[in-house]
Amino acid sequence: MASEPPPAPSAPDPAAKAPSKARSRRRRTIALVLLSIVLLLALDQVGVRELSGRDFPSSDPLALALRARVEQLAAPAWGGRVPGSEGNAAAARSLADALAAANVKPFPSLGGYLAPLSEPTSPLGHNVLGWIPPEGESRGTIVLGAHFDHLGMTDEGLLLGADDNAAAVAVLLGALPSILAQHPRPYGVAVAFFNTEESPYFGTPRQGSQRFVAALPREIGGLSAVRLAVVLDLIGGVVWRPTADTIFACGAEKARGLPAIVDGVREPGLDVRRLGIHAVENIPGYVPQPFSDYDVFRDHGVPFLFLSSGRTPRYHRASDLPETLHYDRMARTSRWIAGLVAALSAAPPALSFDPRGEDFAAERDTLRYAFGAAAKPWTSIPGTSPITWARILGDRSRLEAMAEPGHTWTPEDARAIERASFRLQCLLYRFPVCFTL
């Protein structure tokens, strides 16, 4: 039987090439996406570094005195100023000496600068209190407060607490000469260095600020005479260049008249940005959590202002050392606080506490500034991942929508502000679950 001829080769089918081209395009797209992610990671880590005070050499004359004070308080010899320890007692005595050297007198009713945390004495030590009396007819008292205790020895080692909270103590001491030079002074000024702010005393009657409020010196005239409490905590740290010259003023929205006063006080080189206290305390999924000694004043309906530069990755770590602080910004903060006291003296006679006070527009503007920088790879927060960056873009978009003309504020806006604020805080603190919240 004759063999059949081989079949003729068939012509190429154009339709068969289409799936192959589509697969190639998909592979190229996936490769580009992966390359983009790698580049984002590289951009985040090249040229964007976690900063400290070493990146900001001091040039302000006041900065030298502030650093000397921090180095004294955070010296290893005082062991982290643990309540009840000799180091804590030595720190209290040094602060009493510092008030005397600044010509700030003790409250006459106390007979000295050291106020025991319980009567007649306390094994935990003392608050350290100073008094600048008003001149002429008094309009009340301004409290300037910061805690001076810290944690001492932990499993990590010896925690000396330079930023937490020797820095704030130094800043308040730095403000006193300018405050004393102001005349007239319609307000008395109570300088309060609180003890026992750290765990396990925080939020208990043994907390130093709680004791201060429970046993006010007679010269103040009762808690209703306290017109404003200004509390400082974590005021010296820096890890991100866009906020290197920034401090956050929280809680002004809870006092009628205070936001305008805060906004009106200016200090060259210092950027003071207001943020609602809810944006600091309302952690997604948890009950609101106060962060410092301002809480007792708010609980008693006293107008308050909480000043902080925010937590850094050195918070409650052995790396919280004097050389990591931004002393020039601290010096500017001292002068700003003196300016705030002067502005209050020139303002109308009273601030009134408003527990429902809100200022979402100010919070939006503060966070828009931060997220505008955080969303750019070349100015991102150290440690930002691509997933977190995507979340930041979403936060920025929501904040921009709040700036649309005629925008009406809603409870959803408040929650969006809280989540954006928390994401910013925990990125700066290097808390790794930010992007999930």
From TrEMBL:
Entry-linked InterPro entries: M28_fam (IPR045175), Peptidase_M28 (IPR007484)
Biological process terms in GO annotation: proteolysis
Membrane-spanning parts: 30-48
Compositionally biased spans, kind Pro residues: 1-12
Pfam families hit by this protein: Peptidase_M28
Annotated segments matching region Disordered: 1-23
Domain Peptidase M28: 127-339
An example Gene Ontology molecular-function term: metalloexopeptidase activity
Record Gene3D superfamilies: Zn peptidases (3.40.630.10)
Keywords: Membrane, Transmembrane, Transmembrane helix
Protein known as: M28 family peptidase
UniProt source species: Polyangium spumosum
Lineage per the UniProt record: Bacteria, Pseudomonadati, Myxococcota, Polyangia, Polyangiales
